[in-house]
Write a structure and sequence with these properties.
By secondary structure, this protein is α+β, with helices and mostly antiparallel strands. The chain has five helices and four strands; from the N terminus they run H-E-E-H-H-H-E-E-H. The protein has a four-stranded antiparallel β-sheet with strand order 2-1-4-3. 48% of the residues are buried.
């Protein structure tokens, strides 16, 4: 079953709720398996670059089918490949904590990226969002 707009909105709400508990302001982005944006939510007070960073985290995760930590490892271990892959997608890929894959029946159906907190806070928010759907 593909990821729906309703699913994306629930995940964003879950990520924002966690950010509220952490007393931070974030942007959360949800993309489909092809890296196309389904929904994006920017909390009041979130930084001005957070929408672009959140989407870039999600796109990288979806296109390379790795979470943010896996993307960071790939960028470190295979910089040549990563630099080429980064130019093949519609937005730059941002490796590092803050993105999670969304799976259904063992298949990647999308990804979520979060930006606005420290890296460990971004991943906490992304995981909270993922658990909402």
């Amino acid at each position: 079953m593909p990821l729906t707009l309703a699913d994306a909105q629930k995940a964003i709400t879950g990520a924002h709720a966690k950010a509220g508990q952490l007393e931070i302001r974030v942007t959360a982005a949800i993309v489909d398996e092809g890296g196309l944006l389904i929904a994006l939510g920017r909390m009041d007070g979130a930084g001005s670059l957070t929408p672009q960073i959140a989407e870039a985290k999600a796109v990288g995760a979806a296109m390379l089918q790795r979470d943010g930590a896996g993307l960071a490892e790939l960028a470190k271990d295979r910089p040549g490949f990563f630099s080429v892959a980064d130019r093949l997608v519609r937005v730059p890929i941002v490796p590092g904590l803050g993105s999670v894959l969304i799976r259904r029946d063992g298949k990647v159906v999308g990804a979520m990226g979060v930006s606005g907190g420290r890296p460990e806070q971004d991943i906490e928010c992304a995981e909270a969002g993922l658990s909402s759907i």
